[in-house]
Design a protein that fits this description.
- The structure is a single chain.
- It is built from 2 helices and no strands.
- It is mainly α and 89 residues long.
- The protein has one domain.
């Protein structure tokens, strides 16, 4: 009869350990899922910022804007057609 009590106690401890393992595993799974969602939201925000920065960069590099800055800030101008000299190699 004592081996039945020991076997029952061991089975009870096994079931209890299994239940604790399941609860811990589920908790870790939820924590990791929340972290994944936060990282995906950050990725989406960074993708939006990247697109905005690419658009801004393309607008800053337009030929018209570069020419305007060259004229206004650097006092540059296009040379007269007759003043250009072409050097042949």
């Amino acid at each position: 009869m004592s081996w039945r009590v020991v076997a029952t106690g061991l089975l009870f401890l096994g079931v209890l350990a299994s239940a604790v393992g399941v609860v811990y595993s589920k908790h870790q799974s939820r924590k990791l899922f929340i972290e994944l969602q936060a990282l995906q939201a950050l990725r989406d925000d960074l993708a939006v910022d990247w697109g905005r920065l690419q658009l801004e960069q393309s607008s800053w590099a337009t030929h018209g804007r570069i020419e305007k800055i060259a004229r206004e800030k650097l006092n540059m101008h296009l040379p007269e057609p007759g003043s250009a000299v072409i050097v042949k190699p």
